[in-house]
Specification:
With 287 residues, this protein is of the alpha+beta class. Strand 1 and strand 2 form a beta hairpin.
Protein backbone atom coordinates (compact mmCIF):
# COMPACT_ATOMS: atom_id res chain seq x y z
CA UNK A 1 0.00 0.00 0.00
CA UNK A 2 1.42 3.40 -1.03
CA UNK A 3 1.04 6.56 1.01
CA UNK A 4 1.18 10.11 -0.33
CA UNK A 5 2.38 12.79 2.02
CA UNK A 6 0.66 16.08 1.27
CA UNK A 7 2.36 19.17 2.71
CA UNK A 8 -0.06 22.06 3.25
CA UNK A 9 0.71 25.20 1.27
CA UNK A 10 1.04 27.17 4.50
CA UNK A 11 3.74 24.77 5.69
CA UNK A 12 5.53 25.09 2.35
CA UNK A 13 5.46 28.87 2.70
CA UNK A 14 6.84 28.67 6.23
CA UNK A 15 9.62 26.33 5.07
CA UNK A 16 10.49 28.67 2.18
CA UNK A 17 10.61 31.67 4.51
CA UNK A 18 12.87 29.74 6.88
CA UNK A 19 15.18 28.76 4.03
CA UNK A 20 15.42 32.39 2.92
CA UNK A 21 16.19 33.54 6.45
CA UNK A 22 18.88 30.87 6.90
CA UNK A 23 20.38 31.80 3.53
CA UNK A 24 20.58 35.42 4.63
CA UNK A 25 22.17 34.41 7.93
CA UNK A 26 24.78 32.29 6.14
CA UNK A 27 25.58 35.15 3.78
CA UNK A 28 25.95 37.55 6.72
CA UNK A 29 28.16 35.06 8.55
CA UNK A 30 30.47 34.73 5.54
CA UNK A 31 30.82 38.52 5.39
CA UNK A 32 31.60 38.66 9.10
CA UNK A 33 34.23 35.94 8.77
CA UNK A 34 35.89 37.91 5.96
CA UNK A 35 35.89 41.06 8.10
CA UNK A 36 37.38 39.22 11.07
CA UNK A 37 40.11 37.71 8.90
CA UNK A 38 40.97 41.21 7.70
CA UNK A 39 40.99 42.45 11.30
CA UNK A 40 43.38 39.68 12.36
CA UNK A 41 45.66 40.42 9.41
CA UNK A 42 45.70 44.13 10.30
CA UNK A 43 46.33 43.32 13.95
CA UNK A 44 49.44 41.31 13.06
CA UNK A 45 50.63 43.68 10.35
CA UNK A 46 53.93 45.40 11.06
CA UNK A 47 53.66 47.99 8.32
CA UNK A 48 54.41 51.62 9.08
CA UNK A 49 51.53 54.02 9.73
CA UNK A 50 50.22 55.17 6.33
CA UNK A 51 47.85 57.98 7.40
CA UNK A 52 48.64 61.53 6.33
CA UNK A 53 47.25 62.75 9.65
CA UNK A 54 46.47 61.10 12.97
CA UNK A 55 45.97 61.91 16.62
CA UNK A 56 45.77 59.83 19.79
CA UNK A 57 44.52 61.74 22.81
CA UNK A 58 43.61 60.73 26.35
CA UNK A 59 40.16 62.18 26.99
CA UNK A 60 40.63 62.06 30.77
CA UNK A 61 43.20 64.85 30.78
CA UNK A 62 43.33 65.81 27.06
CA UNK A 63 47.01 64.83 26.86
CA UNK A 64 48.24 64.15 23.33
CA UNK A 65 49.89 60.74 23.14
CA UNK A 66 50.82 60.61 19.46
CA UNK A 67 50.13 62.89 16.50
CA UNK A 68 50.92 63.86 12.94
CA UNK A 69 49.39 66.86 11.17
CA UNK A 70 46.53 67.05 13.72
CA UNK A 71 45.37 70.43 12.43
CA UNK A 72 45.53 69.68 8.70
CA UNK A 73 42.12 69.39 7.04
CA UNK A 74 41.07 66.34 5.00
CA UNK A 75 37.84 64.85 3.59
CA UNK A 76 36.34 62.65 6.32
CA UNK A 77 33.85 60.42 4.41
CA UNK A 78 31.39 58.52 6.64
CA UNK A 79 32.75 59.94 9.90
CA UNK A 80 30.15 62.60 9.05
CA UNK A 81 27.56 60.13 10.35
CA UNK A 82 28.79 60.69 13.92
CA UNK A 83 27.69 64.32 13.76
CA UNK A 84 24.48 63.18 12.06
CA UNK A 85 23.89 60.94 15.08
CA UNK A 86 24.44 63.81 17.52
CA UNK A 87 22.00 66.09 15.71
CA UNK A 88 19.48 63.25 15.42
CA UNK A 89 19.69 62.50 19.15
CA UNK A 90 19.24 66.13 20.08
CA UNK A 91 16.52 67.08 17.61
CA UNK A 92 14.50 64.01 16.55
CA UNK A 93 12.49 61.73 18.82
CA UNK A 94 13.76 58.13 18.73
CA UNK A 95 10.26 56.79 18.21
CA UNK A 96 9.37 59.11 15.33
CA UNK A 97 8.23 57.06 12.34
CA UNK A 98 9.74 58.21 9.06
CA UNK A 99 8.25 57.27 5.68
CA UNK A 100 10.99 56.64 3.12
CA UNK A 101 10.74 58.81 -0.01
CA UNK A 102 12.56 58.74 -3.36
CA UNK A 103 14.73 61.68 -2.25
CA UNK A 104 15.94 59.72 0.75
CA UNK A 105 17.02 56.86 -1.52
CA UNK A 106 19.15 58.98 -3.88
CA UNK A 107 22.56 58.63 -2.17
CA UNK A 108 24.75 55.74 -3.28
CA UNK A 109 24.98 53.03 -0.65
CA UNK A 110 21.51 51.65 0.02
CA UNK A 111 20.02 48.77 1.95
CA UNK A 112 17.22 46.52 0.64
CA UNK A 113 15.56 46.98 4.03
CA UNK A 114 15.20 50.73 3.40
CA UNK A 115 12.82 51.10 0.49
CA UNK A 116 10.27 53.55 -0.90
CA UNK A 117 7.19 53.74 1.32
CA UNK A 118 8.74 51.92 4.29
CA UNK A 119 7.91 53.30 7.73
CA UNK A 120 11.02 53.12 9.89
CA UNK A 121 11.69 54.66 13.29
CA UNK A 122 14.38 57.31 13.68
CA UNK A 123 16.12 54.99 16.12
CA UNK A 124 16.34 52.17 13.57
CA UNK A 125 17.48 54.51 10.80
CA UNK A 126 20.21 55.76 13.10
CA UNK A 127 21.30 52.18 13.80
CA UNK A 128 21.42 51.43 10.07
CA UNK A 129 23.49 54.57 9.51
CA UNK A 130 26.01 53.86 12.25
CA UNK A 131 26.32 50.07 12.00
CA UNK A 132 26.43 49.43 8.24
CA UNK A 133 27.02 53.04 7.25
CA UNK A 134 23.98 53.04 4.96
CA UNK A 135 23.76 56.42 3.28
CA UNK A 136 20.03 56.29 2.62
CA UNK A 137 19.37 55.89 6.34
CA UNK A 138 21.49 58.96 7.14
CA UNK A 139 19.75 60.91 4.36
CA UNK A 140 16.31 59.85 5.63
CA UNK A 141 17.09 61.30 9.06
CA UNK A 142 18.19 64.60 7.54
CA UNK A 143 15.19 64.85 5.20
CA UNK A 144 12.76 64.06 8.00
CA UNK A 145 13.79 67.28 9.75
CA UNK A 146 14.34 69.27 6.56
CA UNK A 147 17.69 68.66 4.88
CA UNK A 148 18.85 72.28 4.85
CA UNK A 149 17.85 72.74 8.49
CA UNK A 150 19.55 69.48 9.48
CA UNK A 151 22.83 70.45 7.79
CA UNK A 152 22.61 73.83 9.47
CA UNK A 153 22.31 72.10 12.84
CA UNK A 154 25.34 69.91 12.06
CA UNK A 155 27.50 72.91 11.21
CA UNK A 156 26.17 74.87 14.17
CA UNK A 157 27.06 72.01 16.51
CA UNK A 158 30.56 71.94 15.07
CA UNK A 159 30.94 75.63 15.92
CA UNK A 160 29.62 75.08 19.44
CA UNK A 161 32.22 72.35 19.98
CA UNK A 162 35.06 74.55 18.73
CA UNK A 163 35.54 72.52 15.56
CA UNK A 164 36.80 75.56 13.67
CA UNK A 165 38.23 73.65 10.69
CA UNK A 166 35.16 71.47 10.09
CA UNK A 167 32.42 71.87 7.50
CA UNK A 168 29.55 69.57 6.51
CA UNK A 169 27.95 69.58 3.05
CA UNK A 170 25.80 66.48 3.42
CA UNK A 171 24.45 64.22 6.15
CA UNK A 172 26.20 60.99 5.11
CA UNK A 173 29.73 61.79 3.93
CA UNK A 174 29.67 61.14 0.18
CA UNK A 175 30.62 64.72 -0.67
CA UNK A 176 34.44 65.10 -0.55
CA UNK A 177 33.85 68.72 0.51
CA UNK A 178 33.04 67.44 4.01
CA UNK A 179 36.29 68.35 5.74
CA UNK A 180 37.73 68.20 9.24
CA UNK A 181 40.94 67.73 11.17
CA UNK A 182 42.09 65.08 13.61
CA UNK A 183 42.03 67.71 16.35
CA UNK A 184 38.44 68.74 15.57
CA UNK A 185 37.20 65.16 15.38
CA UNK A 186 38.68 64.46 18.80
CA UNK A 187 36.45 67.24 20.15
CA UNK A 188 33.44 65.55 18.56
CA UNK A 189 34.34 62.15 20.03
CA UNK A 190 34.86 63.71 23.45
CA UNK A 191 31.42 65.31 23.30
CA UNK A 192 29.77 62.05 22.26
CA UNK A 193 31.62 60.11 24.97
CA UNK A 194 30.41 62.49 27.68
CA UNK A 195 26.90 63.26 26.41
CA UNK A 196 25.74 60.46 24.08
CA UNK A 197 27.58 57.22 24.99
CA UNK A 198 24.70 55.24 23.47
CA UNK A 199 25.90 56.40 20.04
CA UNK A 200 29.22 54.68 20.68
CA UNK A 201 27.42 51.60 21.99
CA UNK A 202 25.40 51.41 18.76
CA UNK A 203 28.59 51.34 16.67
CA UNK A 204 29.51 48.06 18.42
CA UNK A 205 26.19 46.36 17.58
CA UNK A 206 26.36 43.45 15.16
CA UNK A 207 22.89 42.00 15.61
CA UNK A 208 20.59 44.50 13.91
CA UNK A 209 17.92 43.36 11.41
CA UNK A 210 15.11 45.03 9.47
CA UNK A 211 12.56 43.51 7.05
CA UNK A 212 12.80 44.22 3.32
CA UNK A 213 9.82 44.90 1.04
CA UNK A 214 8.94 41.18 1.04
CA UNK A 215 9.10 40.91 4.82
CA UNK A 216 12.39 39.03 4.71
CA UNK A 217 14.74 40.04 7.51
CA UNK A 218 17.97 41.66 6.32
CA UNK A 219 21.01 41.90 8.56
CA UNK A 220 23.00 45.11 8.78
CA UNK A 221 26.65 44.08 8.82
CA UNK A 222 28.86 46.08 11.15
CA UNK A 223 31.43 47.57 8.79
CA UNK A 224 33.93 49.12 11.20
CA UNK A 225 35.84 45.88 11.87
CA UNK A 226 36.64 46.88 15.46
CA UNK A 227 33.41 45.71 17.12
CA UNK A 228 34.76 42.26 18.24
CA UNK A 229 37.70 43.89 20.06
CA UNK A 230 37.18 44.14 23.82
CA UNK A 231 38.84 47.54 24.29
CA UNK A 232 36.88 49.20 21.47
CA UNK A 233 34.54 51.74 23.08
CA UNK A 234 32.98 52.82 19.79
CA UNK A 235 33.51 54.88 16.66
CA UNK A 236 33.14 55.14 12.91
CA UNK A 237 35.17 54.35 9.81
CA UNK A 238 34.77 55.83 6.35
CA UNK A 239 36.02 55.63 2.79
CA UNK A 240 36.03 57.82 -0.29
CA UNK A 241 38.55 57.94 -3.13
CA UNK A 242 39.37 61.52 -2.14
CA UNK A 243 39.46 60.77 1.60
CA UNK A 244 41.05 57.32 1.39
CA UNK A 245 40.23 55.48 4.64
CA UNK A 246 39.22 57.42 7.74
CA UNK A 247 38.61 56.59 11.39
CA UNK A 248 37.31 58.33 14.50
CA UNK A 249 37.19 55.89 17.43
CA UNK A 250 37.60 55.48 21.16
CA UNK A 251 39.59 52.72 22.83
CA UNK A 252 40.17 51.73 26.43
CA UNK A 253 43.93 51.88 26.97
CA UNK A 254 44.98 50.82 30.45
CA UNK A 255 41.64 51.98 31.81
CA UNK A 256 41.73 55.38 30.07
CA UNK A 257 39.51 56.52 27.17
CA UNK A 258 41.78 57.28 24.23
CA UNK A 259 40.50 58.92 21.05
CA UNK A 260 42.24 57.70 17.90
CA UNK A 261 41.68 59.70 14.71
CA UNK A 262 43.15 58.50 11.40
CA UNK A 263 42.75 60.51 8.19
CA UNK A 264 43.79 59.93 4.58
CA UNK A 265 45.01 56.40 5.28
CA UNK A 266 45.70 53.41 3.06
CA UNK A 267 44.54 51.12 5.89
CA UNK A 268 42.92 52.90 8.84
CA UNK A 269 42.48 49.74 10.91
CA UNK A 270 46.11 48.68 10.63
CA UNK A 271 47.15 52.27 11.35
CA UNK A 272 44.96 52.37 14.47
CA UNK A 273 46.49 49.12 15.74
CA UNK A 274 50.02 50.49 15.19
CA UNK A 275 49.13 53.73 17.00
CA UNK A 276 47.69 51.82 19.96
CA UNK A 277 50.73 49.57 19.98
CA UNK A 278 53.08 52.57 20.08
CA UNK A 279 51.12 54.05 22.98
CA UNK A 280 51.04 50.84 24.99
CA UNK A 281 54.76 50.19 24.38
CA UNK A 282 55.86 53.74 25.15
CA UNK A 283 58.16 54.49 28.08
CA UNK A 284 55.38 56.44 29.76
CA UNK A 285 52.33 54.15 29.55
CA UNK A 286 48.95 55.36 30.72
CA UNK A 287 48.18 54.66 34.35
Amino acid sequence: MAFLLVVPKTAQAVDQALIQQLTQQIKALKQEIALMRATLANWHSKNAITASAYLAQNLSDNSVLLSKNPNKSYPIASIVKLMNAVVTHENIDNGKMITVTDKMLKPFGQSPAIFFGANISAQNLLKASLIQSTNDAAEALACSAGEEKFLGLMNQKAKELGMTSTVFYDAHGLDPANHSTASDLTKLLSYIYKNHPDILETTKDNDFWLPNINGKLVKFINMNGFYPISNFIGGKTGYLVEAKQTLAALFDVNGEPVAVIVLHSKNCQADAFRILEKIENSKNPLN
